[in-house]
Structure formats: structure tokens, C-alpha cells
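#lab-general

N.A. 3:47 PM
ok so I finally got the sequence cleaned up, no stray characters, all 403 residues accounted for. can someone with queue access submit it? mine expired

B.Y. 3:52 PM
send it over

N.A. 3:53 PM
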Amino acid sequence: MRSFARSTDGSRETINANYPLYRKRGVGKTTLSAATAIRAAAMGHRTLVMSTDIAHSLADSFGIPLSNTPTPVGPPNLFAAEFDAGEELERYWGDIKRKIAAVLRDEGLEAAVAGEMAILPGLDELLSLVRIKKYFDDASYDLLIIDSAPTGAAMRLLSAPDLNRMYAKNVLHLSQGIGKMILPMIQSMIRWPVTEHTLQEKITRLFNQVEELRKIFTDPDLTSVRLVLNPDRMSLLETERALTFFSLYGLSVDALFVNRVLPPEVSDPYLVDWKKNQAECRRQIAEIFSPLPIFEVPLRRQEVTGIDRLKPLSDALYGDKDPAKRLTKAQSIRFELKEKKYTLSLQIAGVQGKEIDLEKIGDELRVQIGRFKRTIALPQYVAGLQPTSARLDDGTLKIVFEE
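B.Y. 4:20 PM
back already:
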């Protein structure tokens, strides 16, 4: 669900980003983001909760209009905003975009297509990162909560810092390699002097900030991630894959929130199978994600919208815990890159057996050690590698991947 950061001197907590990990919308990540923000503000942290989703619902959750500018939402210390990609694109890229789009329209392209082609791929996601960095540096807030887009977009957002290598090669140094072909083609087509310096000035400004934010994201003393899922198999698989992804990119996950658990008092025969399925899924979640703290959030009697309904949820969610504090340092899975080899370290307590069987099928890795069986959902990049060796070392399974 979220990641959050604390300053190294302890004077302020700074990033708290929510990442829903489910193929579809509706796991409840925005509601839990809003509830977390309310609890943090109530404990004295000057808090900004910010949505980077294209289809925003943070305003609906609070029940008040929101914009690209932080707005007080009621309780003391609490502010909210919804990232406006169009406004940010205009600020950073508007002059170049309009000139390129105008000429492309003259060449016969429809206006909408010309406008899209005038924007570099991934630029809107980079601007989301830059916006986060802006508020990180802003001493006005103690805590940032980032309510992110659904899984695919969240993944691209977090991996966006790695785009700097591609842009540095193909855009910032257009005089080398493929850039020697691309730039003359653009210049001849639009009959407008798109120079290396023009693009370099714009892109360098973005990447400098993104690179700084990457360091913040990967510092466990500053940033941690909290994941939201529902107790069903699809959500479980996606969350497991995402946990591996975050570990691959060096982000620290400190908790999981299992939302919409059917409470014991629900006894309708129609829901008997749902309750059985949820019980099995909750068992698997506890096993797979141990030793991470797992918070189970019961299904509420009515939709949780507005401060009056969010407040009780926020109190029940954390109890006496401070949501701005790191909830654990333990990690169930870690990745290390050394000598062009990725090593996946997986915590598995109480496993007996010496022989380790590995079977990779698509983007899943099946592991068996004695009676212990586990299927690990792999992120796309690691899924392209092959497991070459494995060993069990003091309760930690270490698997090496190579090309």
C-alpha cells in the first residue's frame, strides 16, 4: 500500500507512498491511504496525502474537491492533492510540445495523435516523481503519503529512475549512436530547430531530481512500502510478484494490509464459500509474507467515504501505533546484484531437507525442499533470467539467477 520516509536527523517523517498491488481497481488502497493520513495528522504529523493515479478517487474518499495544489481537508495537519499530469507536462514541456504538435498536425496527423507524439515516452511518470521530490524537499510537511496508480503503473513509476540510462543515451547525447539518425529525422520532418541543447536542458533538469529521489526511495531509513491486497488468489499472486519487484529495486516493504476480510459475524449461507476461500488465502498470506507485519482490515458495514467514516477506520487500523514509524526492519525477500548475478534471499523458517528442487515456468519459480513447497511470482525482468544454483543457509534460501 504505501511507503514512507523519515529524515535522518529524526526531525521529520517524509515519504509515505501507497501502492495497490492488484490487477483491478477496488482493493481499497485509496481509502486506507486516506485513513492512514488522518491517523498520522491526529498524532501531530503535518501530513500531505497525494494521488498519482490517472483516475483519481482521493477526492471522492474525502468527499471534497481536490486539485494539483495541496488543500486542507478538515482535521488539523492534514492536506491532500491529486497529481495533474497535464498541468505538470505544460509546466516542463509545454513550449516544445506545442511546436512539435503544430508541425505534426500540418503533416496530416490528427490533433490528439500529434499531441501524444510530441511527448517523450514515460515523461508523465517522470513528472510524478519530480512532484514527489518537490514535496519531499518542502519543509511544510512532516509526512508524505503517495496513493499510487494500480499495479502496472505503480511498477513503471518506481522503475522510472532506471529510464535515465536510456534517455541519457538516446536523448541527452543525441550526437552519439542512434541519436545521430533520430535528431536529423525530427528536424527535417518538423522544420524546427530541435537541438541537442534544447532537449538536454529540459531532460537533465528532470533526471537530476529523479536520481535524488531514487536515493530516497531506496534508503530504508527514509522510505518503506506498505502493500494493500484483498484476500483472494489473484490479489495474492500480484502482491507476491510486486514484493519481489520492490526488493529487486531496493525498496523496503514494512507491512501488508489485507482489506475487506469477511468478519466472523457474517453468517449468510451465500457467503460460506467466500469465507472458506478467504481463510485459505489469509493462511497463505501469513506463510508467504512472514516475517512482515500483516494487518487484517474487516469489511465495513457501509462504504467508507468522508472524514466522519474514515476517522473510526483510521483508529482501528493502527490502534496505538504511529503510522509514520517504520513497522519492521525484517524483510521476507531480498535481491542482491553482484558480478552480473542476481541472488534472491528468501526467509523460510523450520524447513527440513537438504535437496533443493527448482522449476521455472514462465514468470513463476517453484521451489521444493523436503515437504516445503513454494511458488514465487517473479517480476518481468527476473523472469527472463534462469536459476542456476540454490542453497539453504541458516533459515535463508539463496537462489542465484543468471542470463
